[in-house]
Every structure is written in C-alpha cells, then in structure tokens.
Predict the structure.
Amino acid sequence: MNELSNMKSVTNVIRSRPVHWVGDGFPVRQMISPGDAPQATSPFLLLDYAGPHDFPPSNARRGVGEHPHRGFETVTLAYQGQVDHRDSAGHAGSIRPGDVQWMTAASGVVHEEFHGLDYARQGGTFEMVQLWVNLPAAHKMDEPRYQALAKETIPVVDLANSGTLRVIAGEAFGKEGPAQTFTPINLWDVTLEAGGETTLALPRHSNTLLLVRSGVLRVNDTDSVAAAELAHFEHGGTEIHLASEEGAEALLLNGQPIDEPVVSHGPFVMNSDEEIRQAIRDHENGHMGRLEPA
C-alpha cells in the first residue's frame, strides 16, 4: 500500500493530435498549448513534437522566418536533422542530433529558425521537440540569454542495463544537467531497451508530463503510452515506474508550477493584458531588435 501511494498516477493521456505546419520546415503535433489550462502544465506552456518526417534533398531554406518572443524561454531538442538559429540579441547556432538550444527571450528577441544547410542538401529524417517554458514575473523583462547545450555536455545515466537517461536539466541519479533554469525543472531523455524498466524519483507537488517518441511504455503497471502520445500525472506521489517490452524512447518534463496569472497572445506570454499590449507596441516599434539580412 505504501509503495502504491508513492506513485504519481496518470491522470490523462493525449492519444492523438493532428499534424500542422509551422512555416514550411516543421510538421508538428501540438501536445501542449498556451491556450489550454496553463496551471495544469506550468511551467511548460507549449510542446510541439515535430516529425519524424522525411524531407527530400533541397537547396531551399525550409523553416520559419523572423518572428518575436517575450516573457518565456524556447527550448529546442534535436533528435534527427539540423536547425540553424539566429536572433536579434546577437546569438546564433546550429543544433544537431543530441544537442539542445535553450533561448531565454525574456524582455524580447526576434529570431529565425531554418533547417541547417548540410541537412537540407542531404535530406533525411527530421525529428525535434520545441518547448515554451514560462518565466516568473520577476524575470520576464530580464535581458535575453542563450544556452547552446552540445550533446557531449549532457550527462548520461546507465539505467542498470535497462537503458539510459540523459539529464538535460535538473538532477537524476546523482548527475546534474547543464541547463540553467529560473525555476526548478527536470528535463530528461529516457531510452529503455527491450524488456527494460526503471523507477524515476520526482518531487511531490510538481507538474509531470511524459512524451513517448517511439515504442510503447507501460507506466506504473497500469497505463500504456505509445509513440506521439503525452501522459499527464497527478501532483502527489514521488515516483514513476516505466517498463517497455519492445524498447521505447521518451522525454520526461517535470517542474515546479509558477503560481501567477498567464496571459498569452501569439508569441508573447505575460501576466496581464496591458503587458501583452505593451509587448505588441514594443515589437512594432523595433524595441525587440531586427535581424540583419543573412
């Protein structure tokens, strides 16, 4: 009975979401949206799962052109393919499989995201996740910053010969992730081999989500979550048990909720309608910067 009470039980599983295109380079399923109930997923505002999708070789620049953000962070995790980023704060970078890009828009940036030229010319499978992570009101107007987390800087835990866990943010099994966060967040890539299983320890009174990327995971011996499905967990409990008969890959998101109002409008997420109106004015007046021609 005590063992069961420690488990974070599954409250809901999103079984399917339609694919829509963001620009001409990102075919995504939107698993979390700022228009949903934000406190149920806080601090995570949005989760777009792009792919897997096969692109033919091309010399075209597929992706999304110049657009603004304010009030939150964008986190892009690359699994297959390549994305090049450039923003008005002077940051630029390319992320390849295993890399993570953590951009804090905060007071406002304009950026663009396109397929990397090497990948575009070769073509191949594209698979990425982009998250929007909310910022507390005290940090929404901070200076923008940029974290390029290369694959080799992300620690990997051996799950007792059952698979691996990459610690992107937070702490797991005594290893800390390289991402610097404004609120307590755990962001882990979990890979289980066929017949593998593991128990993950997580803080009580936190929001927890599990996106399965491939295969099928058996969660707490009660729920099955398959590829392109997202499980939500209750706040109580401190453990999640995962098992897979054929092998699976998943992304686990866990964070302390930010107990503040959330007002969103397109690429802006603030705490009030007036702050949204100010963000629109600031962007229109060029206060978030502009991108120089590439």
